[in-house]
Amino acid sequence: MVQYRASKVASYQAIIDFVQEHKPSFDVTTFHPSWVYGRNPVQEPRDNLSGSCGALVLTLLSPERPINGQFLGVHVDDVAAAHVKALGESTRGFQSFLLSAPRRSWEEVNAFVRHEYPSVAWRLIPEDWMNYAVDSSKAEKELGLKFKSMEDQVRDTVDQQLEFGKLPVQSVL
Question: Which of 19, 21, 29, 108 has the fewest CB atoms within 10 Å of its CB?
Fold first, then answer.
């Protein structure tokens, strides 16, 4: 994860350097999403569960400390909408947008999945071990985004995995 995060910082710095050096005649927009959840249109059944969705599913099924110290996510549909909206006239020059719904706790996620999916053999999700927020108000204001909730993000991720038969289901009496 350290190398992954470092690559994100390095690529963003390269964009900043490019814009400053070349002063392009075209607009440059960057998006910086938190963990991206929801239906993955390229995931094949029983294969290729990775990335943010894979980390979420592993967190929900494992008693280990989650990779992400709190639930801070953005729905894949919101990331797509941000890209489309940035093509409009209001996004000019060099713009960067943070994309994230408000922070939620693992305790809230745990309560949601246990209520919404009582037949899945969930593990107890460990407590949060991080507490920070992301200010995505610029994306909300300038792109007109209203981010989907944690419930939508988790529901769409879990529903897809249930359809693929990737979650352990237990009988509920």
Answer: 21
Give the integer Cα–Cα distance in Å for 91 and 7.
Answer: 25
Q: Model-level pTM greater than 0.85?
A: yes
Q: By the 8 A CB rule, do 36 and 51 touch?
A: yes
Q: Which residues contact 115 (CB under 8 A, 6 or more apart)?
A: none
Both tokens of 138, joined, read 């610029």
83 φ, ψ (degrees, to nearest 5): -60, -45
B/e letters for 14-29, b = 16+ CB within 10 Å, e = fewer, are eeeeeeeeeeeeeeeb
Confidence at residue 170, expressed as pLDDT on a 0 to 100 scale: 66
pLDDT digits over 27-79, tens only? 999 999 999 999 988 887 766 788 899 889 888 888 777 778 889 999 999 99
Number of other CB atoms surrounding residue 83 within 10 Å: 14
Instruction: Name the residue among 134, 148, 138, 145 with its Cα closest to residue 97.
Output: 138
Residue type, 128: D
pLDDT confidence of 172, banded at 50, 70, 90?
very low
Distance of CA 80 to the CA centre of its chain: 12
Given 3-state DSSP classes, what are the helix, strand and coil percentages for the chain, each rounded to the nearest 5?
Answer: 45, 15, 45
